[in-house]
Write a structure and sequence with these properties.
This protein is α/β, with parallel strands linked by helices. It folds into 2 domains: 3-128, Rossmann fold (3-Layer(aba) Sandwich), CATH 3.40.50.2300; 141-214, Winged helix-like DNA-binding domain superfamily/Winged helix DNA-binding domain (Arc Repressor Mutant, subunit A, Orthogonal Bundle), CATH 1.10.10. It is 48% helix and 13% strand. It has helices at residues 12-23, 37-46, 63-72, 90-99, 111-122, 130-140, 160-170, 175-182, 186-199, 205-214; strands at 3-8, 28-34, 51-54, 80-85, 103-106, 127-128. It has a 6-stranded parallel beta sheet with strand order 2-1-3-4-5-6, with helices on both faces. Helix 2 (37-46) runs parallel beside helix 3 and helix 3 runs parallel beside helix 4. The longest helix has 14 residues, at 186-199.
Length: 223
């Protein structure tokens, strides 16, 4: 069954371009379009979207607020949001992750990378552009009030194995990569990742990566 994609962008020309690109892939299907955030939330429900390709700068309700509304709505559980924007600024990236976005890409991304990105977030993996990854690492490891963090270090109830696997997730490894590294099955790796997300209250792998850096489980510059 094809992955059902909703396009949320206030520029009709961009939506038309994305539709042509996505519909040309046999495993992807555009099921609807929205020109603002409120419409994106409504269409995500009515069209039963799997992935919302979300712009940030939109009228009325922006992409950040729309992402937040989608990720807290029980009726939309399982819907993934991939933010695609021209503005890869620190505040927007952090706000998008806090809102529950599973991925963040710049609009300058190659077409093949965009299609792979849709598939990646649909599968439950997180996806951050190099610029976004750098921003997340710098932000969560800088001196900031605890209230501004996604997680508190006191939440850490992970087992040693879960901590090890969380660090590997933060290093960009997929479940298959983790399985190969630790000589376990991909299914076992996925189970450990899911348990780690549950214990750390991370909606997806992107937030688990933030957790790893915020709590000092992973330190930039150390292998």
């Amino acid at each position: 069954m094809a992955i059902r994609v909703l396009l949320a962008d206030d520029q009709a020309l961009l939506r038309a371009t994305f539709r042509l690109l996505i519909d040309a892939s046999a495993d992807l299907e555009v099921v609807g379009e929205a020109s603002n955030g409120a419409e994106a939330v409504a269409r995500a429900k009515s069209e039963r979207a799997d992935v919302v390709l979300m712009d940030i700068r939109m009228p009325d309700v922006d992409g950040i607020e729309a992402t937040r509304r989608i990720t807290v709505d029980d009726e939309l559980a399982g819907v993934k949001v991939l933010v695609l924007t021209t503005f890869e600024t620190e505040e927007l990236i952090i706000e998008a992750l806090r809102a529950g976005a599973s991925g963040f890409l710049g609009k300058g991304v190659e077409p093949s990378a965009l299609l792979d990105g849709i598939r990646t977030v649909h599968s439950g993996e997180s996806l951050l552009s190099p610029a976004a990854t750098k921003t997340v690492i710098e932000r969560v490891t800088s001196q900031q009030p605890a209230a501004g963090r996604l997680h508190s270090p006191t939440e850490d109830s992970l087992t040693d194995r879960e901590r090890e696997i969380t660090a590997l997730v933060a290093g960009g490894l997929s479940n298959e990569d983790i399985a190969e590294r630790l000589f376990i099955s991909p299914a076992t790796a996925k189970t450990h990742v899911n348990r780690a997300m549950m214990k750390t209250h991370s909606r997806d792998r992107a937030q688990l990566v933030v957790y790893a850096y915020e709590t000092g489980l992973v330190v930039p510059g150390r292998s």
